Amino acid sequence: MKASKWILAGVAGFAAGYSAAKRTPQNLTPEKALNIVKSRTKDEFMVTGSWIGVHTEEVKRFGLPYTVYKGGLSSTLNSTLTQFDFMIDAKTGTILDISKHGEKAEILA
Question: Which InterPro entries is this protein grouped with (predicted)?
């Protein structure tokens, strides 16, 4: 096989791989997901601490499958440190759950 055919095959392979990678849905980074949660909750309470898991988890919410990050926020409400747990869609950044730590989940709109 001539060198030009090898080069053409390599370019075609690279283009196919690049195209497939672009079509694969990419997850938000954990840091980006945490920043989304903090910015969307800033009107409800002042965040004094936060954390997020670096690995995604597969969960079902509302009967639908989601790939999510789980994490937590802390805030001082009425002079009391309050902890919140959250779950955020890793693909879209939609907050699926925020609840006080240890309480039943509720959705903040």
Answer: PepSY
Residue 39 CA to chain centroid, in angstroms?
14
Q: Residues 44-66: pLDDT tens digits?
A: 888 999 999 999 999 998 899 99
Rounded-to-integer distance, Cα 61 and Cα 97, Å: 9
Measured from the Cβ of residue 106, the count of other Cβ atoms closer than 10 Å reads 10
Strand, helix or coil for residue 104: coil
Strand pairing class (95-100; 80-89): antiparallel
Reported pTM: 0.70
Give the Å distances, CA to CA, from 20 to 8, 13, 17, 23, 24.
Answer: 18, 11, 5, 5, 6
Q: How far apart are CA 55 and CA 19, in angstroms?
A: 26
CB atoms within 10 A of CB 18: 10
Work out the end-to-end distance of the chain between its first and last CA atoms, rounded to an integer number of angstroms.
62
Nearest to 68 by CA among 58, 76, 77: 58
